[in-house]
Amino acid sequence: MTTIYILAAIVLIIAILVVIFRLQVLSAVLKGRYEKRVGIGNDINALLFVIVFVVGVGAFWYSYQQASEFFLPAPSSEHGVKTDQLFWVTMAILVAAFLVTNALLYVFPYIYKYKEDRKAYFYPDNHKLEMIWTIIPALVMAGLVVFGYKEWTAITSPAPKGAEVIEIMGKQFAWQVRYPGKDGVLGNYNYRNIDAVNEFGMDMNDSASYDDFIPREMHFPVGKPVLLNIRARDVIHSVFLPHFRVKMDAVPGMPTHFWFVPTKTTSQMREETGNAKFNYELACTEVCGRGHYAMRFVVVVDEPAEYEKWKASQDTFASLNRDYAAEKAPKLVSLLPAKKVEATEVSAPSDSTAVPADTTATK
Amino acid sequence: MSASDIHIQDHHAHSHDHDHEHEHHELPWIRQYIFSEDHKIIAKQYLISGILWAIMGGLFSLIFRIQLGFPNADLSWMKPVLGEWIQNGKLDPEFYLAMVTMHGTIMVFFVLTAGLSGTFSNFLIPLQIGARDMASGFLNMLSFWFFFLSSVVMFTSIFISTGPASGGWVIYPPLSALPQAMSGSGLGMTLWLTSMALFIVSSLLGSLNYITTIINLRTKGMTFDRLPLTIWAFFITAIIGVLSFPVLFSAALLLVFDRSFGTSFFLSEIYIGGEALSNQGGSAILFQHLFWFLGHPEVYIVLLPALGITSEIVATNSRKPIFGYKAMIGSILAIAFLSFIVWAHHMFITGMNPFLGSIFMFLTLIIAVPSAVKAFNYIATLWKGNIIFTPAMLFSIGLVSFFISGGLTGIILGNSAIDIQLHDTYFVVAHFHIVMGSASFFGMLAGVYHWFPKMFGRMMDERLGYIHFWLTFIGVYIVFFPMHYIGIAGFPRRYYSWTGFDAFNTFADLNQLISIAAILVFFAQFIFIFNFFYSIFKGRVSSLNPWRSNTLEWTTPINPGHGNWPGDIPHVYRWPYDYSKKGHNEDFIPQDVPFSQTPHSNFPHEKDSQE
Ligand code: HEM
Ligand SMILES: [Cu+2]
Ligand SMILES: [Cu+2]
User: Domain limits at A135?
Assistant: First the structure.
């Protein structure tokens, strides 16, 4: 619908322009060869500035109403609430500055359009005025820097003790996550250990690896700090959790971190958005190749109790890949749990090598 | 070959008869128009190449805009042109990225650096400072031909079977370093790097020439505080270029080493294509620091010349001095200086030290102050003016509007806490297209409309110019303004399609609208292109000083020959902005008019210095 409106508007504009064109030709003919410094075009252009400004501000307001409906819901993280606030406060200041400066910019051409009998005002400078409009932006910027700095340092401060540690790794073209299991410690890794089974390059000679598990969805507990240990194994990717206002690059060879506190469970969001199928999503925001647009991963936020239950229900990597672990670390076979029934083996997560981009996209 | 040799011999013999006062000797055609050392011809060569590249870069943006606006459309009709890149009526995702990359590279480097700076620095510097040509005509010619070679290499890369470079115009390794990562990182990337190396050589040769010329060849009386702001802008731009392009060169060189000679500057702990690479200890982030050390100043390399052009045009057509001439110079200097110490605002979320992030946020927001001063000064120049809307003036006002709109959103992105959410979303695409892309583009168009009479001795059609302006101006806002909304909604950039995500499954209408507007804006440019080429041959013949401007270029003949002024070079007695001075019968006093000839308008301190 909007498209049709806009198309109509564009046709209208073109029509107006054609009319102007004709008018100019006519007036030139009427005036004969009398040389004037400016033609009627000058007045029309001056007027158009004002019209475009008024219509433009209207379109701005209208389009904002239309578009804001599709903005992300309120942030689901503690810091997100603050950065959103910072965003909208800054935006309000900027819109004010935008309207004032643009109003002047479009109205002056109309007021001061060329008149034969007038001479422009020779006004090369005014130091007072220039001081004022240097100092005011400087003060505003200083204020914004202070608030931004406070937020930024809080967000990037070291994660609180006892945060839930989760490892997330980007690869072409999927995300994989690893949880530390009962001991709360992620086993060591080395990229040279990576193979088709062991996507993380986990070190099976590290006993901390044995309770680590690799689920197919990422779960967070609500209300508890979560620390993401982020890495990539081929090219740069970027972890983007839009609903949590979280973003951090995943760089091969340089682990990065981001910690935050999720504040709303998935079911809560389903209620709030009225969308029973709502899911938190993880996307990639650093171009990483052909499947960049398809690196979707589902995130679930649980009540802490549910979260613990979910964790307990996950099979460890070692239990799913007993033979592999035994082969890599014969000395630690004792750490392997009792053999599992065949059926679960099928759902082992090691199937995600080279998922064709399109299938991940249309989940 | 021998025939032309004889020609050259002939002309040499011929020219010896002349005295050496002016270089009047007839050069063979090829030295006059192709391998020319005349700055005016070189400027036109840059301009025409820039226009051709702009068409190509624009066309590429249409291809991916069609994909984004009409994700379900059957694109088989493009198959005759794109061949294998269309599979089952769908654009190949890697080709999408290739188009985005080429579009960005072409627009930033080939159109707005070479096409804008190359054209107007070359054309205006000698004419406005009163010089017969550049300091070294030969290096100037080399500069263009290096650019030409660079263009040929980049152009070739589009047609190879593995496709051109596809990792984004910022070519971050490891993606750009490993052919296993995407097919564009193979030969396409090699060609990209070769082309950019040639481009950098061209840019350095040009910049060094601009700097030397401005410092050494100013005519008598043309002190630095009498230079038009255009020249100040070109001067500072050239200095920025000389200081920053070599850094990109070194980054490219190290990348070449990593790609071809097994070094590990940027590579570490990589497992790709089923094997663990041996590279260790490199830093992918190091490349980003090097890249953005050029990349951010590059934004100003693109923008400052446009702002300089605008200063000149706004003053001339407001019939008023530019408001705060000294403050304008001061802010150019401040922006240039600061542009070197804000680069890491592109890297807030790369995992670099958060304290570094704070520093760069602080420096970035400082740069808003001189930018604001510039915007206010433009507006103050319009105030109480007597404004004539030439097409050049319209585009200049449009530029100021974009500079403000796009500059403001920079304040948001410069705030690292807010940038966490907005980085690499469409908000960024909106921001830089308005402030850098569109603003500089408008500066370039304004410059062409304004100096066309000096370049070709004829006028462009004004009415077509008006229509071109209004369509483009409104169109640009329709294309890029809504991208802010899309960005606020979190849509990531360089996405082939968003439909796979629940969160990004909205805005189909809006994306369609943007694409339609983009197509219209693109085709509106043909009004300009028609006007341009038509007017070269059939335009109304220009008068000597059609805009009643003060600067020196308008004291040359309508079609200035080699050496620019047939007689002596005029002397300069005053600054370039004596418009509408009280007591003078005209509303302008050119720079070569001595104070002794304008007794009624002089201020007490304005006397000709004793000679
Ligand atoms: C017809 C006008 C234009 C349209 C419709 C357009 C559209 C776009 C869009 C939609 C993107 C993002 C693509 C993606 O992220 O998937 C893009 C990228 C870009 N555009 Fe434009 N653009 C236009 C003109 C320009 C101009 C004049 C410049 C000059 C500065 C420019 C510079 C860039 C750059 C640097 C990128 C980033 C490329 C990358 O991500 O590597 N564009 N353009
Ligand atoms: Cu990606
Ligand atoms: Cu920057």
Answer: 35-116+128-156
